[in-house]
Structure formats: C-alpha cells, structure tokens
Amino acid sequence: MTADTSASGAHAAQPCSSDRYGLTAGSHPAIQAWAEQVDAILAQHDLDAVPDHVCEALKTLLAEPDLLRPSQQESRADWYRKHQLYADPAGRYTLLALVWLPGQGTDIHGHTAWGSVGVYRGQPNVVCYDCAEGDDGTHAVDETSDRQFGPGDLCAVRPGLGDVHRIYNATDETMITIHAYGLDLVEHPDAINLNLTLPA
Questions:
Q1: What dihedral angle (degrees, nearest 10) is formed by the CA atoms of 15, 61, 33, 2?
Q2: What is the three-class DSSP state of 152?
Q3: 127 with 168: CB under 8 angstroms?
Q4: Residue 47 counted as domain residue
Q5: Within a domain: residue 30?
C-alpha cells in the first residue's frame, strides 16, 4: 500500500521552526543520508511497514565505526542517557543514541509510535511480554522471552500493547543502542514510552 503524501496525508512534511531540528550539530554525515532514506520510506510505505524498512536503513549507521562523537557516547550514573542525533524538521521521527552503564535498564513499557532499534555496541537483553489491560486499568504481563542481542542486531516495534518489553544491560561493559521513533521527541521528549500500570 502506498502512503498518502498529499498535503493532507498522514506523512506530509510540515517544517517545524526551530534550530533543534535536523542533524544535531557535529553529528556524522551518514545520519543525514539515513534521514533522506527515511523520508523516502515514509513517502512510499504504509506506516505499519515503516519500522521494518527503517531497520534496514539503520544497518548502514550501525556499521559506521565513527558514527558517534565522544560527547554522544557519554553516560550518566543514575539512568541510561539519551543523545539526540537527528530530528525530522517535519516532526515525523527522531533518531537517538542511548548509552547504558552496567545494570541500567528500562521499566516494562510499550510505545506510542513505531520504533526501529539497533545495537551499536555491547549486548543488551530484551525481555518481551504478553500484556492484557484489565477493567480497572491495570496491566497484567507475562514474560515470553529474554534474549541477548549483539552489535548489528535490529528489532522493530509498533505502537500499543503488542510489543511490550524492557531492555537492560546485564554485562560489565557500557552498551550503546540506536533508536528511531516515529514521533517528535524535541517537542514531546517523554511521549514515546507507553507506561504500564502493574497490579500492586
């Protein structure tokens, strides 16, 4: 199915007026080329197919040994750290590098938009869950897998409760993952995670 690219279409580009958009200053030029690929993907494909195609586009970035400058590899002691690499000027997607120290990880969550994730360095574990929402608004989760990924590995996620998961670093080394999300995370930096209410 071909996406609607008319002015009223879901993927139509409407530029945002801020210098926080586009290629983050000092970022690798391969990221700009990747963004042009994503623009073409959004113009040609239905949104349900987008995350798989964006994963394919991420392969070039994951293979780039100097993709991240030193400041984009910095961590923080209390939580994994996010570095913005690119923000679509039309607000349709954002690219991030996430840096994880040993023992750091996410809560169990889903996403509010599509996502494409690749491992740049290290070996993250991804735990997947079946999830059901109860009448009281709480979420029952059942672990279905706990898989360790390695450099170059990729996965796609879709919005809602169908891809509920958590990520953690069980190794003794810092790891870095690259995340593309179909959301404007400049304007809404905390809006991508669908947080669950677990029973007490």
A1: -70
A2: coil
A3: yes
A4: yes
A5: yes
